[in-house]
Specification:
By secondary structure, the protein is α+β, with helices and mostly antiparallel strands. The chain has helices at residues 3-17, 29-35, 40-48; strands at 19-27, 52-58, 61-67, 72-76, 82-85, 91-99, 102-109, 118-125, 128-135, 138-146. Belongs to the calycin superfamily. Fatty-acid binding protein (FABP) family.
Length: 148
């Protein structure tokens, strides 16, 4: 992606899905957490927890900060592979792309990691931010509303 295309994509990400988002509901969260090997107690805590996600731009990177039940803070350049971690702290390599209003993170485990290939898509649907997470045949959805 050329530099001007990258800048336009970064601006589009922030314009489309930037801001502070509050979790409204989860769909199929328990099945997803089981699939990636999260134990029963942590799955129940995750299901009961509230969550906020903040999406911003910092220079040539997108930053996503998630608070509760497990805080994360990730920054990445579009279309460049980075090392990341799954919810179980397994090391992953991930590439994030922006296309047609959808922020997609395609992750695969690094050599020796116990992680599982994961696809995460974030997009706007009817004034809500929808986050779809796919691992194997399991699909989980998290629905967020913009914080006022």
């Amino acid at each position: 992606m050329a530099d001007s295309e990258t800048q336009a994509a970064l601006e589009d990400v922030v314009k489309t899905i930037g801001g502070v988002w509050v979790l409204v509901r989860n769909e199929n969260l328990d099945e997803y957490l089981k699939e990636i090997g999260v134990n029963f107690v942590l799955r129940k805590l995750a299901a009961a927890a509230s969550s906020t996600m903040t999406i911003t731009r910092e220079d040539n990177k997108i930053r996503i900060v998630t608070k509760g039940p497990k805080d994360t803070d990730v920054s990445f350049e579009l279309n460049k592979e980075v090392v990341s971690h799954d919810p179980n702290d397994n090391e992953m390599k991930a590439t994030v792309t922006w296309d047609a209003g959808k922020l997609t993170t395609d992750s695969s485990p690094t050599e020796g990691s116990k992680g599982k290939a994961t696809l995460v898509e974030r997009m706007m649907v009817d004034d809500q931010l929808i986050m779809i997470v796919k691992v194997n045949q399991v699909e989980m959805r998290r629905i967020f509303k913009k914080k006022s």
